[in-house]
């Protein structure tokens, strides 16, 4: 498996990563994804792709390093998805390990993410990865 941090403007963001990301975020269109990329770049948003031995993108992670008063600096994972056909093959583990390396290099105090309450399979995976539930996430829809 090959893990690659994709730079802004890299054509693989839409050609390779977006189709995998759509499995988790089906509301995205290419136009909306490019808009989020453009706005998110200034907020530190980055994407990492996992490729299998045949060169197919099988995993995607969106992430950023964030300064907070509670943790000082953390790596926050916006998106973590493995293509359905590649699940249980170590893709998610490899992506998280790669992101943890980024977090440690940036002297982050934690690697964090939110996961929908209905995503019980994902929760089992996060527990296996030695992650803990440490907070509730609240939201108030505005649209």
From TrEMBL:
<protein>
    <submittedName>
        <fullName>GNAT family N-acetyltransferase</fullName>
    </submittedName>
</protein>
<dbReference type="Pfam" id="PF00583">
    <property type="entry name" value="Acetyltransf_1"/>
</dbReference>
<feature type="domain" description="N-acetyltransferase">
    <location>
        <begin position="1"/>
        <end position="143"/>
    </location>
</feature>
<dbReference type="InterPro" id="IPR050832">
    <property type="entry name" value="Bact_Acetyltransf"/>
</dbReference>
<keyword id="KW-0808">Transferase</keyword>
<keyword id="KW-0012">Acyltransferase</keyword>
<dbReference type="InterPro" id="IPR000182">
    <property type="entry name" value="GNAT_dom"/>
</dbReference>
<dbReference type="InterPro" id="IPR016181">
    <property type="entry name" value="Acyl_CoA_acyltransferase"/>
</dbReference>
């Amino acid at each position: 498996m090959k893990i690659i941090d994709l730079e802004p403007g890299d054509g693989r963001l839409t050609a390779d990563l977006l189709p995998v990301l759509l499995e988790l975020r089906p509301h995205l269109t290419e136009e909306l994804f490019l808009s989020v990329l453009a706005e998110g770049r200034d907020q530190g948003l980055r994407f990492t792709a996992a490729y299998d031995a045949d060169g197919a993108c099988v995993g995607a992670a969106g992430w950023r390093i964030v300064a907070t008063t509670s943790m000082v600096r953390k790596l926050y994972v916006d998106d973590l998805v493995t293509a359905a056909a590649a699940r249980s093959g170590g893709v998610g583990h490899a992506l998280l390990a790669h992101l943890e390396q980024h977090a440690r290099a940036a002297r982050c105090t934690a690697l964090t993410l939110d996961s929908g309450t209905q995503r019980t399979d994902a929760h089992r995976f996060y527990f296996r990865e030695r992650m803990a539930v440490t907070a509730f996430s609240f939201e108030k829809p505005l649209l």
